[in-house]
């Protein structure tokens, strides 16, 4: 096999692994930020109680972070170091804005994440906040590009 091809494949695989690692770290951070917003342990609400509201809020938050990570990779133009830094920075901004949106919806609109996750049935407010998470992720992702 051609040496240049092997080097290119190794460099590409290293880049993928680096972006994946930053993406996973951001998704874990996003999960724990949501965990701070809900009463009890988010993982317990999802695994043991099978709470659909907690699950929807967590999955939409993680999907939003994933959109931001993907856009950051796209916008990096192949510059790995700059791309990784931008991915981390924009991911943190996206998580912060999602958190702020949860607070705003609680205080201004009267939809409380804390109250939603106490409900055993899927609530319309959880759907609204989930779409808000995705919207914020999409807006941030497009701003990155």
Structure description:
The chain is an all-alpha fold and 145 residues long. The chain has one domain (3-144). The chain is 83% helix and 0% strand. It has helices at residues 3-37, 42-47, 52-75, 80-109, 113-116, 124-144.
**Unreliable residue stretches:** none
Q: Care to count the β-strands?
A: 0
Mean pLDDT across all residues, rounded?
91
Q: How many angstroms separate the termini?
A: 36 Å
Count of separate structural domains: 1
Tell me roughly what share of residues is in helical segments.
over 70%
The percent range for strand residues is under 5%
Q: How many individual helices? A: 6
Radius of gyration: 18 Å
Structural class: mainly alpha
The helix/strand order is: HHHHHH
Q: What does the largest sheet look like?
A: none
3D shape: elongated
């Amino acid at each position: 096999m051609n040496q240049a091809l092997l080097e290119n494949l190794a460099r590409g695989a290293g880049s993928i692994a680096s972006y994946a690692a930053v993406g996973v770290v951001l998704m874990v951070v996003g999960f724990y930020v949501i965990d701070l917003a809900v009463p009890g342990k988010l993982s317990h609400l999802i695994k043991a109680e099978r709470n659909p509201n907690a699950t929807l809020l967590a999955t939409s938050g993680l999907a939003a972070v994933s959109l931001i990570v993907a856009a950051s990779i796209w916008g990096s133009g192949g510059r790995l170091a700059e791309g990784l830094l931008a991915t981390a920075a924009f991911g943190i901004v996206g998580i912060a804005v999602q958190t702020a949106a949860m607070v705003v919806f609680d205080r201004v609109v009267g939809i409380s994440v804390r109250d939603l996750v106490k409900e055993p049935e899927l609530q319309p407010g959880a759907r609204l906040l989930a779409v808000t998470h995705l919207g914020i992720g999409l807006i941030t992702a497009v701003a990155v590009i």
